[in-house]
Amino acid sequence: MTTITVPAKVPALEPMEATPAASAVTTSLRGGAIAAGDVCDTMRAKGAPPGWTGDASIAADHAMTRFGRETDAVVAALEKAVLACDVYVDQVVRLTKEHADLESDRGELNNAIDALMADIDASTGDDVPALEARAQQLLERSRHLTDQIAAFWQRVRDAEDRLVRALGAVDDVSEGRSAATRDGRADTAALRRELAALGRDATAVNAWWASLSPAEREALKISDPDLVGNTNGIPTGDRDEANRGSLDRDLDRLRGLPADERSDAEQALLDRAEAAEQALAIPGSKVDRTTGLPVDVNLLVYQPGAFGGDGAVAVGFGDPDTADNTAVIVPGITNDGTTIPTNAEDAFRLFERSNGAGESSATIAWMGYDAPSWRPQDALDWPGDGLDMGSVVREDKAVAGGALLADFVDGLRATDEGDRSHLSVIGHSYGSTTASHAAHGHGLAADSLTLIGSPGAGGDAVDHARDLGMPAGRVYAGAADNDFVSWLGRDGDLGMGQDPTQATFGATRFPVDPGVEFHAETIEEGVANHTSYFDEGSASLGNLVAITRGDEPTVISGRTEAANDMALDWARDEAVHQVEKEIEATRQEIERGVEQTREWGRDRWQDVQDAWPW
Amino acid sequence: MVTRLPMLDLVARIGLGIVTLVWLLTSCSSSSSEVDGGPGGGEAQAAKREMDALAEKLLPDLVPRLGEVTEMDAEFVERGGYGLYDYRASAQVLRPAPRREALAEVERVLEEHGLTVESPGETSDVTGTLGNVRVSVVWMSGDAVDTADLTVNTLRPASGDDDYVADTGPTDYTTYLR
Asked: Which residues of B touch A490 (CB under 8 A)?
């Protein structure tokens, strides 16, 4: 009898204690550091209250200076702690991937061992040499894998040790003070000046950012999170970290105020902060199928007080700096900082459907401009939100938004790593007008421009798709037949430009489900038609996925009936419908009246019969 | 092209604007309880009731054909700032049963539960509808992991139920699987 030594199966790896979700700790720490930095700045900027004089005033000044200095020691300590946590989380992300790879290798090895055992059971003497060779091969694989697993756990311990040492180096007041006063601490004021000097040149900003040390970057994220988080050209991951720090600070502060003590402005800020928080949570525990890791969610813009309190925000799924395909969705009227969860839902659906099959995607809901928005509770606030909504009849917000959008896309181009990402901009409703202005007026650096549910492709100067300056054949348009907003495009001074789905406009038109016919009393169905372009399973979503991936959508011929004529047709039919409805209502009213009269007559006749017993 | 009738265009535009504003005002002030029983419920409550009931019966039969689901919350999602709400739940099944093998089983389960199975084309591999509810399953391959995405959603958005929606938290559909 021959003995063949088969290696034992390799046991499953213990799960890692830390996960990429540990980044939440870093975010909280950074948020704390930002808040402490704000306190420090306030203490330094303000002295004794106005009107104070004499010894009390001097004492107050000194006390505030001392407090400011001590707070700065906390900030300096936190700068180091946050940097250490950041490095640790990066390592955890890499180690998590390694863990998954090792588990996969282990599974394959154990399957091979099972297969060998089965072959041995069924073997004859002639098979022995080959089986022994396979066993030897598996033994070597097993040893190699066991060594790899041991080395992996050593790297996990090393990462933890480094973190503990870094945190231990700033865990008391004296260490914080020395961190604050040490030579080489980042001069954030100087860094701010350098960044300001670069203006809107995203490529220069990107190169400057790359030249900074990790400590300088971290210090700037803490001292100026709003600047770092919203400057185009700074990499997505850094913008996200800075903006999440700001968000964490805002949520902490505003939720800490009793609801009845919050001013209207504070409540509005909290609403926008909570909306951003909700949008960031949309993927839940879902995994990015191209990385095997939790979906990378990025807060690319966070300015909750921008545009008179409407707020600016952008939330992305996937990493646009590394993705093969990136899509920026520009929402339209009624949207502001509070509606980002809805906008992000659309972006996430596009991400889920376009990411995979050999290509990675990133999608961004960009509410980074001041769209005409609406708050019902302020409907009578004039000039206020009423005026804001009224601005839908003008293009000025689309013009201003177009410049901001073009800058944002320049930023994505500047931070793009590796092969050039295929970048699509998708404008919906008034957002399509905004995107058209970005293309026509500001050289939008996208590979394609898609206009859906468009009220017009931006102003008098755009008569044809070629006027948008996009690559040939890369202006796409789609509109539901029963989307009344798509009936507004027109030639001439009035309105927001040409209907981009017209055959004469020259865009590539793709099919969209027509939507249901609606009447004035069921206008919500008309609104549903206008908001169905990202619906699961819709023809529109399928085509938007193709465009995002750089493929051609299904193509249909353009509209030949002028958009305004479609509106007039509807208005004419609606007038007939309303008259018919009124006639029908009147007829039913008369019938009811006749019936009631008959009943009355019958009742009276009955009364007569009852009173006259013949 | 259209400039031949500028006044008509203007009238149409203003008319549409008025219709939109009237609808917005109406949607802000409508009493949802008028639509379908119960205070503060209406269309949204009816949609939730219909979808929850179907999910409770369907998911225990459907999900095992696909794989394991660990998270599936149903919640209302507003369309823009329009006061229209979709009710929606989605789940991601990692390393699902292969599409070719599971497809027939999934279709059979949907049909057994009375759904009309259809093939919508480019974004969903299997779709079934019943009343106001749609169920779809999409298989996707990835460099790291393959997934099947299961979505249950209402077809028609509900309107006029802001308060009810604001007061209604997510419903955990994984409880139907235990």
From this structure: 2, 9
